[in-house]
Amino acid sequence: MREQLLSTARAYFSSQIEKHRMNVEIMLSNPIAIHDHTDWMAAMEAEIGQIAEYEDKLSALDYFSDVIISN
């Protein structure tokens, strides 16, 4: 059960990183697609902040795992 919980958390954090990475990619490649944002830098900073948060959470899981499972 322990490894299953850790594995699920790892998968979730990794998928959140990918979601926010894709949001930044969309902003960079097609900024017109997100018409509600006039402050592009703030919007991009918020997405990058989310990536950093989930990277930290992913890294913190190593404290609870005897064997590091690769993503």
Protein described:
The chain has 71 residues and is mostly helical. The protein is built from 2 helices and no strands. The protein has helices spanning 2-29, 40-60. Helix 1 packs antiparallel against helix 2. The mean pLDDT is 88.
List keywords for this structure.
2 helices, mainly alpha, 69% helix, 71 residues
Approximate shape: elongated
Q: What percentage of the residues does DSSP assign to strands (E)?
A: under 5%
| Broad structural category | mainly alpha
| Count of DSSP-assigned helices | 2
How far is it from the N-terminal to the C-terminal residue, by CA?
Answer: 18 Å
Mean pLDDT: 88
| Helix-strand topology string | HH
The percentage helix is 55-70%
- Largest sheet data: none
**Would you report the number of β strands?**
0
TL;DR of this structure?
With 71 residues, the protein is mainly alpha-helical.
Write the layout of secondary structure elements.
Blueprint (H helix, E strand, L loop, with lengths): L1 H28 L10 H21 L11
